[in-house]
Design brief:
Number of strands: 0
Order of helices and strands: HHHHHHHHHHH
Length: 286
């Protein structure tokens, strides 16, 4: 149910995710020229469409969809059970939702990590040499990427997971925590009735919170997944190396692409989540 909502969302937002990946990788540690391959998210989308065709905009779609199914299947399914075991009073709904969101997000990120790794490497790979950014992996597609990981053993499969877990934990806490709180506030303060309007407004607010808190972890996660083994020791080392080589603002590379993507993605996923949850409640009560 929840995985279906996530899969629908990723189909529409994958081009923006591809642009985010490339913007975060360009100019990595100052090793690839001046880092001006893509001027901004719009230039990235235009350049990829022009040089690699429309299929280039959907690179990593299959692995991205599998990641969303695995990660959000865990995250959204476990969120409410985790909320129910939190030892906080009902007045602390925001704190409860944040902690439950972080815990469920960390579980989902760990199990879905191999799909995210393959997605990142596919999205960074360019068929136009002049527009390539980051390390270019010899990977033909989702299944080829997963086979390569399987041959590399457990360490290859879990490469980058150390960055993915805090990334999704922070993002999930921000998204699900602010979504629940926004619904409560908009309903009680503005009198907005429960429905698609309330879900839409709450989703957009939660998307803003995700970008503000998650982008540095997102940059580190993308680079950990794409870099050859040994370049970074972990997410903190990646952030420190990035700041030293490129300045503190480099931790917010791709933030506009992330915000443009997370807003619609959150709206589509969370609105469908609400709809699917109501359908499931009706089926259970029938």
């Amino acid at each position: 149910m929840f995985s279906g909502a996530a899969m629908c969302a990723v189909t529409f937002t994958n081009p923006l995710d591809m642009a985010r990946t490339r913007l975060q990788l360009q100019g990595e540690l100052g090793l690839r020229g001046d880092g001006k391959t893509y001027r901004n998210v719009w230039h990235c989308l235009y350049s990829v469409a022009k040089q690699e065709g429309l299929r280039g905009l959907q690179k990593g779609l299959v692995s991205g969809g599998l990641y969303q199914v695995a990660m959000n299947g865990c995250r959204l399914t476990l969120h409410e059970p985790f909320q129910q075991i939190m030892p906080f009073p009902e007045d602390y709904v925001g704190l409860t939702a944040c902690i439950a969101g972080a815990a469920s997000g960390a579980v989902g990120a760990f199990f879905a990590s191999p799909f995210y790794l393959v997605k990142t490497r596919l999205q960074s790979k360019s068929s136009a040499g002049a527009s390539s950014v980051g390390h270019q992996h010899n990977i033909k597609g989702t299944w080829d990427g997963l086979k390569q990981l399987a041959r590399g053993g457990p360490f290859a499969i879990l490469q980058g997971a150390s960055g993915a877990v805090p990334r999704v934990a922070v993002g999930s806490a921000a998204q699900l925590g602010t979504y629940s709180k926004a619904k409560s506030m908009l309903s009680s303060w503005l009198g907005i009735a429960d429905g698609i309007g309330l879900h839409f407004a709450s989703s957009m607010l939660s998307g803003m919170a995700v970008v503000a808190t998650m982008t540095p972890f997102d940059v580190a996660s993308t680079r950990l997944y794409n870099a050859p083994a040994g370049v970074y020791k972990g997410p903190l080392d990646c952030m420190l190396q990035t700041v030293r080589a490129e300045g503190p603002l480099a931790l917010y590379k791709g933030s506009l692409a992330l915000w443009i993507r997370v807003g619609p993605h959150s709206v589509i996923m969370l609105v469908l989540w609400e709809k699917f949850r109501k359908i499931a409640d009706q089926v259970r009560s029938a």
